[in-house]
UniProtKB/TrEMBL annotation:
PANTHER family: LYSYL OXIDASE HOMOLOG 3, LYSYL OXIDASE-LIKE-RELATED. This is Lysyl oxidase homolog. GO terms for cellular component: extracellular space; membrane. It is found in: Secreted, Extracellular space. Pfam families: Lysyl_oxidase, SRCR. One of its GO terms (molecular function) is copper ion binding. The lysine tyrosylquinone cross-link (LTQ) is generated by condensation of the epsilon-amino group of a lysine with a topaquinone produced by oxidation of tyrosine. It comes from the Eukaryota. It comes from Pundamilia nyererei. The gene is loxl3b. Keywords: Copper, Disulfide bond, Glycoprotein, LTQ, Metal-binding, Oxidoreductase, Repeat, Secreted, Signal, TPQ.
């Protein structure tokens, strides 16, 4: 035998050794590309002919909470709260298409229902597929009144494949597709995440089964790739896999060849491994379960005649290509973006028109349109099409309404839309999405310990020594801030950062004591701490475990935005006498040269304007410090809840700061709110300070420190910049919209602002033009 033939046989033998283990479908490898479990709650066959319906009802409530009502024997009724538990709530939330429950309510919190009380003393274990399979007193047997109606609070995340409907019918069907995974065959691919190529497998009973590839199309591949977080499909070398299969069959058929028992067993029972033998997707479905499917019959003589397990290959988006080995990067849209989401691949949908970003109205917003957005941004199909500003409200124009994508469009701009009018939509109807993203395993290298809940604790990261031995270690708390905490919470899958803590002595419950990471500095948008800057060699002055970094995470966060147009409308100059500025000087609201002035004679020239700060997020904005630590300022007669709430800066053409001001939050309160929203915060009588979601705080132009001291400024063209929450003291869902900029012209006597805009409101091209703007040649604004 010559050397080349020997090498070929050796190569095939190695590949064969990698191919055969995949055939043992009952084992689950640790790194497998899997869509999140779509545990559609479908109960076992019931003697009742109709399907059980469940809905949330009552008031006041959000979309994911409410009084539980069941439709039984043609009538809606409620559940009594006797013996009610979180396990019952889990079953009901699953039934409604939510991933889990976060709580439950008693005593008709959402109001009293009407009609029957269908169930009482319900006792679920939590894993039942429908409430009807839990123990109870039986249908209609209750000693309760509607004052005891039970309610649930579901986690605000939908199970993939569910439509966003309030009423979910439980269907009796054992042949269903819930979970799908991509199982790699080649050994090298098993070590890299995300997994982009492999055998398609579906969860079946207690194991996994394949799909027959006879009649398999690119449209089927597109649907599966979308489920797994990939925007596009690629051609797969089927001949390669056929040769492997043929070679495996030949090896097993030769009695003298030493073949593993698992490989022989696979070929002997091959027909039993195919659960599906026909899939006919159109390519627009968001889940394989939505495609026409034909399931293998147990008594079939041949489950996949002339075929083999379906193998696919997917194209990852740019964010997930670092380990894929692909050279050609996928181009993504530059005129569509997601804002305000806690996780990668979710957020409020914003589109760019005439260099200005705007939002999309949620009328007729559905999974088809949402999937077009997800795919054009480099993600998979949509898990959820969110309505009602569920990712916070946008600012500025609303460009689209009644978007009607078919699912095959390359961009949302290619879809039919309805012209927008002010009567049609408000920002309370901004559309949002949650996209399928590839499994990267990032959460396996981080954990938090010692906290009172799973949302807080000391951060511990998994590290490997040169020998490959893995262990957990701490992060140095020095300079650890909200931005780093944002990344840690995102990596943990726990939402937004509420706080980043530099000391965690009160969470000292772990035996992990070594500092393994220091100098962590994040931008805030990274997917994992390993993508941030950090010291190559650990350097931590306070290396004791009590000084390790910690986080408090939250599923919601505030989001502050300044009303740019009001700043432009209210700007003016005032020459204010020094004898009226003693309190302002005490609070450091004047430029440094004021200290050399001949007090109380003379004056300071002040650039004044009003600031209206909106909370467009999903949680109230509240000071980091509790009222016990607020500082009393006797001169002005008020408390400061934050030392620096806002920076006011005047910049020259080079971006150098030539004048500055700052505003302490002496009174964070709800000045006014949107229709239907009540004020919660009022500063009077040492009241609670904060800004409610949907409300705004107004700092009028005529109050102290609402200015920039421009006494020393020469006439010219400048950029005026306002930054809210500049030190990131309070967590927000989005810090990119905290800055506002204006072009400014000062002639020594008067001042003009124009082109005022939020920091992320314009396209990159328009922002570059703004920065290079030479200023007005006259007082006319064109």
């Amino acid at each position: 035998m010559d050397k080349s033939r020997c090498k070929q046989q050796l190569a095939f033998s190695l590949l064969l050794g990698l191919w055969l283990p995949y055939c043992l479908t009952q084992t689950t490898p640790s790194n497998t590309a899997t869509s999140k479990p779509t545990t559609t709650p479908t109960p076992s066959p019931s003697p009742r002919p109709e399907r059980l319906k469940v809905r949330l009802s009552g008031y006041p409530r959000k979309h994911n909470e409410g009084r539980i009502e069941l439709f039984y024997k043609g009538e809606w009724g409620t559940i009594c709260d006797d013996d009610f538990t979180i396990a019952n709530a889990h079953v009901l939330c699953h039934h409604l298409g939510f991933v889990s429950a976060t709580g439950w309510t008693h005593s008709a919190k959402y109001g009293k229902g009407q009609g029957k009380i269908w169930l009482d003393n319900v006792q679920c274990h939590g894993g039942e597929k429908s409430i009807e399979f839990c123990k109870s007193r039986g249908w209609g047997n209750s000693d309760c009144t509607h004052d005891e109606d039970a309610g649930v609070v579901c986690k605000d995340e939908r199970i993939p494949g569910f439509v966003d409907s309030n009423v979910i019918e439980a269907q009796v069907d054992e042949n269903k597709v819930e979970e799908v995974r991509l199982r790699p065959v080649v050994g090298v691919a098993k070590k890299k995440l995300p997994i982009t190529e492999g055998v398609v497998e579906v969860k079946y009973k207690d194991g996994w089964a394949q799909i027959c590839d006879v009649g398999w199309t690119a449209k089927n591949t597109r649907v599966v790739c979308g489920m797994l977080g990939f925007p596009h499909e690629r051609k797969v070398n089927k001949n390669f896999y056929r040769r492997l299969k043929k070679r495996a069959a030949e090896k097993v058929s030769r009695p003298k060849v030493n073949v593993s028992a698992g490989g022989r067993l696979y070929l002997e029972r091959q027909k039993n491994n195919f659960h599906l033998h026909s899939v006919a997707c159109t390519g627009t479905e968001v889940h394989l379960a939505a495609c026409p499917l034909e399931f293998n019959k147990p008594n079939a003589t041949s489950s996949c005649a002339g075929g083999m397990p379906a193998v696919i290959s997917c194209m990852p988006g740019p964010l997930f290509m670092q380990n894929s080995g692909l050279k050609k990067k996928l181009k993504i849209s530059t005129n569509v973006r997601l804002k305000g989401g806690a996780k990668v691949g979710e957020g409020r949908v914003e589109v760019l028109k005439d260099n200005v970003w705007g939002t999309v109205c949620d009328d007729r917003w559905n999974l088809l349109s949402a999937s077009v957005v997800c795919r054009e941004l480099g993600f998979g199909s949509a898990k959820e099409a969110l309505t009602g500003a569920r990712m916070g409200q946008g600012m500025g124009p609303i460009y689209m309404n009644e978007v009607k994508c078919l699912g095959q469009e390359r961009s949302i701009w290619d879809c039919p839309v309805k012209n927008i009018t002010s009567e049609n939509c408000q920002h309370s109807e901004d559309a949002a999405v949650r996209c399928n993203v590839p499994y990267m395993g990032l959460e396996t290298s981080i954990r938090i310990t010692g906290g009172r809940t799973r949302y807080e604790g000391r951060v511990e990261v998994l590290t490997s020594d040169p020998n490959g031995t893995q262990s957990w270690g701490l992060i140095c708390g020095e300079n650890w801030s909200t931005k780093e905490a944002m990344v840690a919470c995102r990596q943990l899958g726990l939402g937004y950062a509420n706080q980043g803590l530099q000391e965690t002595w009160y969470w000292d419950s772990s035996n992990v004591t070594d500092m393994v990471m220091s100098g962590v500095k994040c931008m805030g948008n990274e997917m994992a701490l390993s993508q941030c800057q950090y010291h190559k060699t650990v350097s931590c002055q306070r290396a004791a475990a009590k000084f390790a970094a910690g986080v408090i995470c939250s599923e919601t966060a505030s989001d502050l935005v300044l009303n740019a147009s009001l700043v432009e409308q209210t700007v003016y100059i005032e020459d204010r006498p020094l004898h009226m500025l003693y309190c302002a000087a005490e609070e450091d609201c004047l430029s440094k040269s004021a200290a050399k002035a001949n007090w109380p004679y003379g004056h300071r020239r002040l650039l004044r304007f009003s600031s209206q700060i909106h909370n467009i997020g999903r949680a109230d904005f509240k000071p980091k410090a509790g009222r016990h630590s607020w500082v009393w300022h006797a001169c002005h007669g008020h408390y400061h809840s934050m030392d620096i709430f806002t920076h006011y800066d005047l910049l020259n053409a080079n971006g150098t700061k030539v004048a500055e001001g700052h505003k302490a939050s002496f009174c964070l309160e709800d000045t006014d709110c949107q229709e239907g929203i009540s004020k919660r915060y009022e500063c009077a009588n040492f009241g609670d300070q904060g800004i409610t979601v949907g409300c705004w705080d107004l700092y009028r132009h005529d109050i102290d420190c609402q200015w920039i001291d421009i006494t020393d400024i020469k006439p010219g063209n400048y950029i005026m910049q306002v930054v809210i929450n500049p030190n990131y003291e309070v967590a927000e869902s989005d810090f990119t919209n905290n800055a506002m900029k204006c072009n400014c012209k000062y002639d020594g006597h008067r001042i003009w602002f124009h082109n005022c805009h939020i920091g992320d409101a314009l396209s990159e091209e328009a922002e570059r033009r703004f920065e290079k703007y030479p200023g007005q040649l006259n007082n006319k604004i064109s």
